[in-house]
Amino acid sequence: MNGPHLTLFSADLLSKWGFNDGSDPDVWLDYCEANHVDYNEVDFPLTTLVRQHLIPALNQAVTVCDIETSHNPIRVDSIDGRDVTYLWHDSHSADVDALLTPEHVDVPLANVLRLVLAEAGLTEAPRYTGPLGTA
């Protein structure tokens, strides 16, 4: 994929610590800074991105659950009818990379920004004029 993009890894759906442990991805923060977008004023739409881009691309039948936590907030609890919640806390005990295919999907960061704006009800990105945290 050309241009800046966010990569969503399928295996992250199987770990409590997946998707950067629920934190905003560095590639998103770097994109915002490069484009003078104040990312502190908007929410990063991880669960929406996963539901719109990663889940439909999977070759397996999965059930997905949202979890209110400070960690990864969206996980797969079954694959092809088999419970996989035991992997959430011990995803290193199995070859999780082989459980879900494709391995990843890429989402252009321009599309991520459009989604952020739509979810926030904004027509323009909130801007800052200098490095974040300075007046």
Structural account:
With 135 residues, the chain is α+β, with helices and mostly antiparallel strands. Helix content is 25%, strand content 17%. The protein contains four helices and five strands; from the N terminus they run βαααββββα. The protein has helices at residues 18-21, 26-34, 46-54, 109-120, and strands at residues 5-9, 62-66, 74-79, 82-83, 104-108. The strands form two sheets. A three-stranded antiparallel β-sheet has the order 2-3-4. Strand 2 (62-66) and strand 3 (74-79) form a beta hairpin. The chain is elongated, with a radius of gyration of 16 Å. It starts with a strand and ends in a 15-residue tail after the last helix.
Strands side by side in the biggest sheet: 2-3-4
What percentage of amino acids are in beta strands? 15-25%
- Please report the distance between the alpha carbons of the first and last residues: 36 Å
Sheet bearing the most strands, described?
3 strands, antiparallel
Number of DSSP strands?
5
User: Helix tally?
Assistant: 4
Radius of gyration: 16 Å
Instruction: Name the helix and strand elements from N-terminus to C-terminus, one letter apiece.
Output: EHHHEEEEH
Low-confidence stretches: none
- pLDDT averaged residue by residue: 91
Shape estimate? elongated
Question: What is the helical fraction, as a range of percent?
Answer: 25-40%
**Helix/strand/pairing class, anyone?**
alpha+beta
Please write out the topology.
Layout: E1 5-9, H1 18-21, H2 26-34, H3 46-54, E2 62-66, E3 74-79, E4 82-83, E5 104-108, H4 109-120
Antiparallel strand pairs: 1-5, 2-3, 3-4
